Amino acid sequence: MTRVPHLSRRGLLAAGATAAALPVLAPSGASAATAASARATGKLRRTPYTFRNAEIVGGGFVTGIVFNQSEPGLVYARTDIGGAYRLDTASRRWIPLTDWIGWDEYGHTGIISIATDEIDPDRVYLAAGTYTLPEWDPSMAAILRSTDRGRTWKTTPLPFRLGGNMPGRGIGERLVIDPNRNKILYLGVRGGHGLWRSTDHGKTFAKVTGFPNAGNFVIDPTDPDGYNGDNLGVLQVVFDKRTGRAGRATRTLYVTVADKDNILYRSTDAGATWERVPGQPTGFIPHHAVLDHVGGYLYLATSDTAGPYEGFKGDVWKLDTATDTWTRISPVPSTSDDNKWGYSGLTIDRQNPDTLMVSTQLLWSPDCILFRSTDGGASWTRAWDLDTNSERTLRYDIDISAAPWLTWNASPSLPEMAPKLGWMMESVQIDPFDSDHFMYGTGATIYGADNLTDWDSGGTVHLSVRAQGLEETAVMCVISPPVGAAHLFSGVGDVGGFRHTDFRKAPKMYDSPTFGGTPALDYAELAPHTIVRVGHPTSGWTQHFGISTDSGDTWTPSRSEPAGITGPGVEDQAVAISADGRRIVWSPAGAPVSWSDDHGATWTASKGLPAGAPVRSDRVNPAKFYAYGSGVFYLSTDGGKSFKATAATGLPVAGNVRFKPVPGHEGDIWLAGGTTKPTTPTPYGLWRSTDSGTSFTRFEAVDQGDVVGFGKAAPGATYPAVYTSSRIHGVRGIFRSDDAGRTWIRINDDRHQYAWTGNTMTGDPRIYGRVYFGTNGRGVIYGDPR
């Protein structure tokens, strides 16, 4: 389960990229000129490709679901690292809206808030920016604005960072549109930056200088420069639309703040002046606020922490805005010994405003809880109840056939169940036009139902996966063996990895052992039915290593592991198997690089390598293995028992370095990587060796090289097709070469950039032109020539 931040590819390695002039959907003059220059000189050609996901269906934290309040069926979803989506009501699939974001703006795929315009439903806005830490994301945040429902975008830069993948990212929405005068937008900002406002449809923003409280809640004040050291800030703006009319600014609005002593402020003069709402509760952080525009009640769900990974106490409150009377309506109040959670996901039924739902902000064991009230919070029922025998009585069932991996291969003892109702359930939304339709996000998917009101008559609510089209995994490795039913194997963060036999369906997760994340895979080039993988064990497993000898149909865990192991090792290059499948070299965390010749039953430390060095096998000679570290290339000619540094010079000493030997060509190795980060300047490009790493030659056309892979040769060619995510002749993109790097063809386009793509890539050895690559939040992508 997603219990830790999406930090596997958090940008630490990609942050060293220079600010290249990128061709984007609406390019600046500089980027357009760069691309035009490259085309004019004939250095680059383009060929049209079609890109799709190898479907996993979900896989990450859906932080927000937002329904438009005037147009039925118009709904958006946001994710912490995978961008934003709009639901296509005909297909019931989510359409990705942010694939156009390029390499240098990779941080803009962390969406902290979405605003959809109820006056002009074609307008939609995203508050974008993944991290508040400059070393993880060097770019500032931005407001992305669209007038065609996300088909095209314009960007408003902001002078601060927003934290779409930081603590508190499930709170909100922080970005809202005035429902009476849609030129006006408000944005609640973290980090002490306060409340901001736009009066020109988001083209510009200015700080609301009269707002009195920028927040003060910090998870860990002793860590001011760390992940938990940021002030959560101003959280949410809620309009009372009754206090305005068409074309005139709404007069009354409420703002929640991350200050446990002062959580709610109000303006009755369209934001000119502000007051602390009297009588308000204290002691918790407001996660979600909803206003009933019929009865005039404001509801608040609160928790003791920012979330999403913890939350142990909280309350739900009801404010009568006419009298400023507060009523605690918590299903289980914080004063009770039975309250072991905060509250977060909060929604009301716009067709029947006395009907409310709220979720526990978190409850790992046995499960999160959904509560429902039909009398304004006076009484509640639960999605499940627990009897004295630890048996659960359910008001729901769940269909996970669209994403069968959601059990994590687990068969827990009661009261635990698999699949879970959810976790990190910070966005629960009843369709404003249909009382029976609701959806909620979890740490791994979206669930929903179309018979919600059956809950109230004692019926069973039929939940099912509603994340089709939404792909939000951080991909660590991909391989494509030349035989077997599966053309693709993937290793991903949080949800293990998959054997993909049908790209249109979500597969089951690897088992025996089950991993929470799979950093590395390899197959034996001359015995390709043999595949190895390493990962982070979960679901009761302790082993970090598994091997298959039947093309991934079944797996066997290791019987022993290198002494001192603390983790599986570096992404995409932690494990290698010899060309004949008889020798394995593993570079785990916390232990020496080690080799095994009995499929992982025993391990012996390799000599001559630094711990943690990335490793690869020659694809022809079973005795040869390669390794790399800090600018030094290493060669083994005895099956990984010992390594020696080669004479190669001029290689990058820092940055995101990836190397890969070429199938069918002994001693042929390509290496990509480097950084231009000012603190660690180093060569940054793409190199090739044809003498087992003794020397390397750089490709001058490649300004910045990041990852490389190989696939079936072009018709009439003998050398494999080469694929890379790089910057070539000043243009950043995905490229293919059919002549061993003498010329390059850009195969992606400006609408399909997928932000950061520098971790893993391979071609298909059976299908010419097909490429597979990993993203940092948009799942596994494969491309075919049109």
TrEMBL record:
Task: For this UniProt record, give its keywords in alphabetical order, as a comma-separated list.
Answer: Carbohydrate metabolism, Cellulose degradation, Glycosidase, Hydrolase, Polysaccharide degradation, Signal
Gene3D superfamilies associated with the record: YVTN repeat-like/Quinoprotein amine dehydrogenase
**What are the boundaries of the signal sequence?**
1-32
Record keywords: Hydrolase included?
yes
What is a single molecular function from GO for this protein? hydrolase activity, acting on glycosyl bonds
Q: Does the keyword Hydrolase apply?
A: yes
Which residue stretches, if any, does this entry annotate as coiled coil?
none
Q: Check the record and name the PROSITE patterns matching this protein.
A: TAT (PS51318)
Entry-linked InterPro entries: TAT_signal (IPR006311), WD40/YVTN_repeat-like_dom_sf (IPR015943), Xyloglucanase_GH74 (IPR052025)
Query: Single Gene Ontology BP term?
Result: xyloglucan metabolic process
Which family is annotated?
A: Belongs to the glycosyl hydrolase 74 family.
For this entry, the protein name equals Xyloglucanase
